[in-house]
Structure prediction request, 664 residues.
Amino acid sequence: MIADLTLDVALLAGAMRHGGIGVGLADEVDAVRAASLVPGGDREELRLVLRSALKVRRQDWERFDAILEAYLARRPASSRPRRSRGGPGRTPGPEGEPVGAGVAPGGAGRAGLGDPGYSPVALLRQESPRPCPGEDLAAMERLLARFARRLAARRSRRLVPTRGGGRPDPRRSLRRALGSGGELVSLARRVRALEEPRLLFLCDTSGSMDAHVRFVLALVLALRRVAPSTEVFAFNTSLVRLTPLLLGGGLAATLRRVAAAVPDWSGGTRIGDCLSEFAREHLRGRADRRTVLVILSDGLDRGDPALLADAMRAIRERVRRVVWLNPLLADPRYTPTARGMEAALPFVDSFLPAHDLASLERLLPQLAA
Amino acid sequence: MSPEVRAVEDALAKAGYVPDAAIATALFLATSLRKPLLIEGEAGVGKTEIAKALARLLDTELIRLQCYEGLDASTALYEWNYPRQLLHARIFEGRGEDPARTEAAIFSREYLLERPLLRAITRSREPVLLVDEVDRADDGFEAFLLEVLSDFQVTIPELGTIRAEHVPFVVLTSNRTREIGDALRRRCLYLYLEHPDLEREVRILRERVPEASGALAVEVGRFMQAARRRRLGKPPGVAETLDWAQALVRLGRAHLDAEVVAATLGCILKDPRDLRDLGGAELDEMVTQALEAPP
Prediction:
């Protein structure tokens, strides 16, 4: 009953997407093919098979297991076998209940799990629009254009053809030599390619930071023209990866999407918890020794400073440079004595204000590759 | 466990690899569906070892492509034998050959140096292709790899397209220093390897360091499990376990004791902070616990 297995997998994938685990159609196809290979398998085997075929990352295992358990539990037992659409019936495996294939969920279970192909993105678009800072954007872009060349100044190990000096390029040299009867008249050369800067922004979106976040997000949008791989995360009481929301649309549309996706926008802050989560889940995959990591926050943390210090140490060890933007620095009387700020400061390379274009001018040289 | 998966598990054990259910299942799926297998996990959990075991199991050649930053098609795929081409170009020129015929001659298969990816698709029997530490190559190479793994064909401008006679079994490994792109991930089946549990670690020790006494293997295993539960900067992997057991055997030990553990701790902890954090009384207590029989 391949048709039913397909439906099972599609419903499960829908539930996974609903639960925040990304699954694509190709993964679903793999899962159907894989599960049909072990029709007699027990639950544990089914779990292993699906985990492999649906490419469930380590950090999603617990959530995936819970979703799978919930799905299997919701599915009515063999009391309501579905009629196969023309295919031959399948006999239960030796272990008893055939869980690898077979019974589709009833109406109630189906409604709870969402339809196949369901995506949460559509929901985010319905949030109310929010004000945005547009006026400084033109000035910011002019500034960025000036700095773009300096931003991309580091050379990678990859070699690209050049007209000037560099290492000999045998392939192109030989091509030239053939034109002159096998005589090497001039050597073609290649040099190490220019590298794109790698930037990662962590923005505190708590109430005290609201206006500054909009400013920095506008900066990030402009920066992504020079450095398309720039990553952005938002945090307040939880951590959200914003990068997928930055694609397409103008600043206003992006800000709307971002505001809708970040829970507790303009609420309180738990910097330590959020940075720990970041260090645990994303640091390895999204930052490396070339990354410049920028944190935007006033450092007013409600959590444990030791937790924040641990997270900052992990981050500092991983990346090339840590920049902390603190709008409070604009006030000359400010001293970083808040417990969170004090705990984080030993692991910060540059501690800068972020409230106007002048402070931006000081930030940009720090971001160079 | 299904009989098919059980068979893979047994064959792996026979090939000298101590599997668990997740590994056996993933390898069964990868070989049955003929899809590449992407293996992720901490350094030292035995990712590369799986590809080697698979090659032994299938009794076929293992072709390894080690990735690094800046890896390009000429190192991964093919390269022309330039010195030879140049030499022959001049010889042909000396004989007064037609330039077009010279060119056709020196851009033929016999002047082509096969690199791992091309070699993997031109073997007469399907090999195991290990693309090791794919996260170290840059994104551009990943896209290129994706193309090769989709079609199993390689286009060489001067020669034309070479199609795989036999599609190789492909294993990719990643330490997750960089997130692998979704497109490549989707192309593969996925296995995340964790550090082995005590039972499996002891089995691995018995298999790989048979000189170690039974008691020593269990004690080393218990100590390693305890060490990984600490908050270490670089948790030790199976490779470290094996190194350490071998060191202890070489020192003629049949049991752990505080003194020898302190002296050989560098075999398993390779970070100065970890070495500092895990010292003194705490270390003694871990040794005592490793020596005690489980409750």
